[in-house]
Design a protein that fits this description.
Elements: E1 5-10, E2 13-18, H1 28-43, E3 49-53
Parallel strand pairs: 2-3
Antiparallel strand pairs: 1-2
């Protein structure tokens, strides 16, 4: 996982936090990490929702 995004699982909910101050903008690295993270979460049958926050 990238330093630019953080993932926390809370029961059946995954919370992805963008950590790229000051504006929490997307970069090529964070978008690649997002893609990888979403693919992993799609394979996890215990996760029902994804919340993206910054």
């Amino acid at each position: 996982m990238s330093e630019l995004i953080q993932l926390e699982k809370r029961g059946h909910i995954a919370v992805l936090t963008i950590a790229n101050p000051p504006a929490n903008t997307w970069t090529a690295d964070s978008l690649a990490a997002l893609k990888e993270t979403v693919e992993e979460l799609n394979a996890d049958r215990n996760i029902f929702a994804l919340v993206v926050t910054g």
